[in-house]
Every structure is written in structure tokens, then in C-alpha cells.
Specification:
Layout lengths: L29 H15 L4 H10 L6
Helix pairs in contact: 1-2
Amino acid sequence: MTPSKKRRGRPGCHPATPRTSNNTRKSTALAPRIKAAIVTLALWGWVPVKVAEWLIRHGGLRDA
């Protein structure tokens, strides 16, 4: 018995689902921008550092 060659993927290298949107930005990219804005405002002195830390910690931005 000879080993069978198992092919992977689809013919012509087509993905399983085509892209249906022209928008290439992900919505999750917004969180790092918000975090950067908070840090920048804190460095400029417009927002107290403790408030910036609290916003990042409790605003769901700590993993961004």
C-alpha cells in the first residue's frame, strides 16, 4: 500500500471565504489609539497622571 498524497487547501490558492469589505482597518485598533491619547495628554499635563492610570486600568485599555 502506497501512502496517499494529501493536498491541503483549495485549488488555485483561493481562501475559504473571500473578503467582503474594502475596509482593512480593524475596529480593535481604536483601543491603542485611545490609550496613546490618554498617555499623551497625561504627559502634556492636561490630565492628571492618576486619572490617566485609572482610565487605562478601568477603561479596558490595559491590554491594548
